[in-house]
Design a protein that fits this description.
Layout (H helix, E strand, L loop, with lengths): L1 H16 L15 H20 L4 H22 L21 H4 L3 E15 L14 E14 L4 E10 L8 E14 L2 E9 L22 H5 L5 E11 L2 E9 L34 E10 L4 E11 L17 E13 L2 E12 L2 H8 L10 E11 L10 E16 L11 E14 L2 E12 L7 E9 L1
Antiparallel strand pairs: 1-2, 1-16, 2-3, 3-4, 4-5, 5-6, 6-7, 7-8, 8-9, 9-10, 10-11, 11-12, 12-13, 13-14, 14-15, 15-16
Helix pairs in contact: 1-2, 1-3, 2-3
Length: about 475
């Protein structure tokens, strides 16, 4: 009973902590939000330690109350609107700002984010030859989230993305996702529409405040082809510390030339196979499933797999009655720890593609242009908020990311791998958040490959979310 009384006390303090500031006099020294959160998290850790050592019925009740308190801590971090912290995960697979519709009582929600990137390339390649790459300053994207909550059982969520500033130039406008959620219960729902595939860290949660680095990891661009969305339907939900999502979607288009405008697989990876919901060829379907273990202490670990044919009915001229299967399998596993100022991530991914010889002939690839029969990539990342104990709302996280990727780890007999596709990337930088919704990042990337053609680059990125 003592544990229950203590948990109740924490709940009352939490309610008082989020009460409007006008109840405090000017003379009172109110603790900051960060101090309140730190104290609450310490109390939670102490209670959990007692729960772990207790075998009583009360322990189960305390565990339930602790989970509720943890959710309230998340609400305190987010506030009435979206206030993105480095450690926020969002809801039901979506990023913090993309999750706004889940937090409204009923009606419309509006959010968004944007990114600008400056890239300064080294003048020489690894081997000392001229790089001949022009420096670039690009407003990468401006995104608007529009959602509508019809009632507690049905809601709509969408993302409209403007890329590269102008459709009159190199830019475009796309629907990044647009889906309906139907809640069967608080822990289970059905999702249908244009869906972000639940793979890796970045594909579902790519708002600039949610990941370290001015650019997204190459493993999550070319093997997990972020941003990856397809038309489909499936289930999502959570049961205790486990979160899951599983969908049936139209498959990738490995060959190109179909109605979606997909450019097909290449020696550089699977990215060109995305159909992006636009008149997607659906001769071949695919399944994707994800499972995560989420610990309120800041630990998350999970895995996902994608399996489906990618030939989309294309048949070789020599045998028009035998369509290319091109079975494509992508697997990834990841672990993340975000607590006490640390931002730690590790991810590994593998991909296998069948019938690559037939795909090469269909695309006209020869020599070292071959699509990879096997691909792999992965990275480890370490960041730490050096201002964590300072009396400031600023956050400053130096970070280091080590990445390796090879999109031609194996090719069919008669073809060769291009050594430029076997790459190592070391990224060193820092991320500053003057407020939790605005981020400035700067890093230097040491890029090398087996052909000594790598070009180092210095990057500066500006991001916002609301």
């Amino acid at each position: 009973m003592a544990l229950i009384r203590r948990a109740a006390g924490i709940s009352l303090w939490l309610i008082a902590s989020v009460a409007p500031g006008e109840y405090a006099t000017a003379q009172e020294q109110e603790p900051t939000t960060e101090e309140r959160l730190a104290a609450l998290e310490r109390e939670v850790e102490e209670l959990r330690a007692q729960v772990d050592s207790s075998g009583t019925v009360d322990a189960a009740e305390i565990q339930r109350q602790l989970d509720a308190i943890s959710r309230e801590i998340e609400t305190l971090k987010l506030g009435q609107d979206v206030v993105v912290t480095v450690g926020e995960r969002g809801r039901f697979g979506m990023g913090p700002a993309a999750s706004k519709v889940y937090r409204v009582q009923q009606g419309a929600s509006l959010g968004g984010y944007g990114e600008m990137l400056y890239e300064n390339f080294a003048s020489q390649r690894q081997d000392g030859t001229p790089a001949d790459q022009a420096d670039q300053l690009d407003f990468l994207r401006a995104v608007v989230y529009l959602g509508y909550k019809f009632n507690d059982q049905i809601l709509f969520n969408s993302e409209i993305e403007y890329e590269h500033a102008s459709t009159a130039g190199a830019g475009s406008v796309s629907i990044e996702f647009a889906y309906l959620d139907f809640f069967i219960s608080t822990g289970l729902g059905v999702r249908a529409g244009l869906i972000l595939l639940p793979m890796g860290f970045i594909n579902e949660q790519h708002e600039p405040n949610t990941f370290l680095g001015t650019t997204r990891p190459e493993s999550e661009r070319r093997i997990i082809p972020t941003t990856w969305r397809e038309n489909g339907a499936g289930i999502f939900g959570q049961a205790g510390p486990l979160e899951f999502r599983a969908f049936v979607v139209n498959g990738l288009d490995a060959v190109a030339g179909g109605s979606s405008g997909a450019t097909g697989f290449t020696a550089r990876g699977l990215r060109g196979g995305r159909q992006r919901g636009s008149k997607a060829v659906a001769e071949d379907m695919a399944v994707v499933a994800r499972l995560d273990y989420v610990n309120v202490r800041g630990l998350m670990a999970g895995t996902s797999v994608y399996i489906g044919n990618s030939g989309q009915g294309t048949a070789p001229p020599a045998n028009p009655t035998a369509p290319i299967g091109a079975l494509t399998t992508i697997w990834e596993a990841r672990v993340q720890y975000r607590a006490h100022g640390f931002d730690l991530r590790a991810l590994g991914t593998l991909a296998w593609v069948d019938d690559v010889r037939a795909l090469n002939f269909a695309q006209g690839f020869t020599g070292d242009e071959s699509i990879g029969e096997r691909m792999y990539g992965g990275y480890v990342q370490v960041g730490y908020d050096v201002l964590r104990r300072a009396r400031t709302r600023n956050r400053l996280l130096p970070y280091l990311r080590l990445e390796r990727i090879d999109t031609q780890a194996r090719v069919p007999a008669g073809f060769q791998s291009n050594p430029t596709n076997d790459e190592a990337i070391v990224t060193v930088g820092a991320q500053w958040l003057p407020i939790q919704q605005v981020v400035v990042k700067a890093d230097y990337q040491f890029r090398s490959d087996k052909a000594d053609q790598g070009v180092n680059q210095f990057n500066i990125a500006l991001g916002y979310v609301f």
